[in-house]
Amino acid sequence: MTSRIKALDIDVVNKIAAGEIIVAPENALKELLENAIDAKSTSIDIIIQDGGLKLLQMTDNGVGIYKEDLPILCERFTTSKLSTFEDLNSIGTYGFRGEALASISHISRLTVTTKTKDSACAYRAIYQEGRMVGEPKPVAGKDGTQILIEDLFYNVPSRLRSLKGGNEQLSKILDVVARYAINTDGVAFSVKKAGDTLNLLAVRANNSTKDKVRTVFGSAVASELLPIAVEKSEEIGLLSCEGQITNTSYYSKKSVSPIFFINGRLVSCDPLKRMITQLYSSFLPKGHKPFVYLRIDIKRENLDVNVHPTKREVRFLFEDEIFQVIFQSIQAKLGSLDHSRKFVTTQSVLKHQYAPQEEITKKPQTLLRTDDLQSKITAFINTTNTESFGTIVKDRVTVKLSSILELRQQLENKVSEDLTNMFAKHTYVGLVDPNRRLCCIQYDVKLFLVDYASISYELIYQIGLSDFNNFGTLYLESEKPITIRELLEIVYESIDTSVPPIDDVLEALFEMKDMLLEYFSIELQGTEKDPILRSLPIVIKGYTPSIGKLPLFWYRLGTKVDWSSEKECLDGILRQIALLYVPEVSEAEGIEKILEDLIFPTIKSRLLAVDSLSKSVVEIANLPGLYKVFERC
Fold first, then answer.
1. How far, in Å, CA of 319 to CA of 302, rounded?
2. Do residue 307 and residue 371 come from a single domain?
3. DSSP string across 171-216
4. Residue 461: domain span
5. Of 70-74, 81-85, 441-445, 488-492, which gets the smallest average pLDDT?
6. Which of 437, 466, 463, 465 is nearest to 449 (CA)?
7. Which residues of 553-575 are buried (b: 16+ CB within 10 A; e: fewer)?
8. Contact in structure between 205 and 42 (CB atoms under 8 Å)
């Protein structure tokens, strides 16, 4: 028998509509983020549990919602963004249809707490299936809105079963927040799991786009970014196009889907994505992917934002022409680069100095435990535990950072051929005075007194340039964590001059933790208020720096390094590492072995002696001169 046509129950209609808009937790979060940004928020904090399925809470400091509007807040097609259909032609906000909260209320347990600036208190309302349950209750609260979503899809078991575990949903949520954080100026974002004190993601409001990319996607991406700006074209409706793209030196098989914002809206744009992917294929090795972020603004009247329930797609006039202009701009930008050729030239000039060490060429992958790396934390930390160090050497990567190449070139220009030849062919004689850091070497028929501290400093700095982004890792394993705050407090106790507050120094250091780990194998864990030191770089295999020098190292790293300029910053960090690894006077008992077995063999094979080192070398005897003395006798 043929079934009769009938109207669907309103509850079924609403659940179908909700399923079209809220496909997974990240869709719900995207809608909430857009509402918060539309509400002029400058801070957005997100808490999640079980990938957002059990709990998804977002708190903003925006304008809030009037108490009088709460009863219809979760009814379908209630909005403050539109009045007439014609308003769609000039829509400038993220949301406009009024379906997001309505959809969420039909498939979860929804609670809204909000306060406007002129309200005496906040109000909390509970919603179920698009309707407010009871009356709004007055509660204490700050200006803004908190949306609490619990048990998402509890009444849609088929959808709940189709979603994979919490970790996968968590990564998708973090990806959505990361993309909005990169694009949204003047708004701080944070994400953490329910019950945790540490953020999974934290992006500051005043960070530059490049710094945001570094925070979210890491230093490997941020260090290879190029700003891109496309010329305005009124005739096709292109008002602006700008963003960040990776250069031809960025190699990664990890694919990050291009980030496109059109008129402030995060969209997937397959035609533009295909064009850019095809373009990069002629510049990058096969299988490697670029990072692309573009913010495109076109005339509002040319844009149709109402073509997809989740607003993930848009349509606009002169689409092909606009994409072609963007394509040509990116093509011209990439075509003007020639980093690879410059890098090969520099490497060929410095091939002896910067040849990979044997142990790096072999690319060992396992963690090594070595008895000779056993040491004790010195007196500045009140502990008697013996510290064990684990070492690991990572795969070598090609470094094409222009600032490092410039520093290498500057070094090459200062090299003294005679001094370099002397150190390359010297014979270590012995320690003369550890307190004055003097030792003796022989070259040809001459004997020299050498300031081993200044020579070691130059050697370690050069190793830092050579092994930049390729340091092995020296892990500090201790029952009592080494906190940077403890180290700084030791230095601050002995300094009378005006210095920045410890909290400011810690915050600055912790903000750079990704860069320190990526480039220098210096790992910080914990929080910005109390970071913990987990590892240091391996400079010379088998050589451990003096732990007693760590307080001054972190003080100088936090106060003496110019973090505002890339080249000066990297150079400053390398020089502080060099100071840390110079053998300490307090190591006098073992200094002879360190110099003879580790430092001077490495000097012999790797040092390019610069002109300034001539002041650290004094000739004290030579065989022809001794013969003349004997002849006179």
1. 10
2. no
3. HHHHHHHHHHHHH-TT-EEEEEETT-SS-SEEE-TT--HHHHHHHH
4. 353-507+536-621
5. 81-85
6. 437
7. bbbbbbeebebeeeeebbbbbbb
8. yes
Looking at the structure, do residues 187 and 237 belong to the same domain, yes or no? no
Q: 31 — phi, psi (to 5°)? A: -65, -40
Q: Cα(174)–Cα(290) distance, rounded to whole angstroms? A: 20
Q: Assess whether 415 and 483 both reside in one domain.
A: yes
Q: Classify residue 181: in a domain, yes or no.
A: yes
Same domain, 169 and 233: no
79 plus 147 within the same structural domain = yes
Interval 556-583 mean pLDDT: 91
Tokens, residue 421: 């030849």
Higher local confidence (pLDDT), 252 or 172 = 172
Same domain, 553 and 425: yes
pLDDT band at 130 (very low <50, low <70, confident <90, very high): confident
Pair 199, 188: CB distance under 8 Å: no
H or E element that contains 440: strand 438-443
The whole-number pLDDT of residue 588 equals 52
- The CA-atom distances, in angstroms, between 573 and each of 43, 213, 295, 359, 569 are 33, 22, 34, 24, 6
The reported pLDDT for the residue numbered 338 is 46
Residue 395, helix vs strand vs coil: coil
Asked if 170 contacts 158 with a C-beta cutoff of 8 angstroms, the reply is no
Query: Highest-confidence range of 40-49, 102-111, 294-303, 378-387, by mean pLDDT?
Result: 40-49
How many other CB atoms are found less than 10 A from the CB of residue 143?
Answer: 16
Cα–Cα distance measured from residue 248 to residue 290, given in angstroms and rounded to the nearest whole number: 8
Beta bridge partners of 45: 59, 190
Single-letter code of the amino acid located at 456: S
Burial string for 415-454 (b: 16+ CB within 10 Å, else e) reads ebeebbebbbebebbebeebeebbbbbebeebbbbbbbbb
pLDDT band at 482 (very low <50, low <70, confident <90, very high): confident
For residues 452 and 459, give the distance between their C-alpha atoms in angstroms, rounded to a whole number. 10
Residue 68 near residue 135, CB atoms below 8 Å = no
Task: Tell me: pLDDT of 188 over 90.
Answer: yes
What is d(CA 556, CA 544) in angstroms, rounded to the nearest whole number? 20
pLDDT digits 0-9 by tens, 229-283: 999 998 999 999 999 999 988 877 777 889 999 988 888 888 899 999 989 988 8
Domain assignment present for 194: yes
Same domain, 238 and 190: no
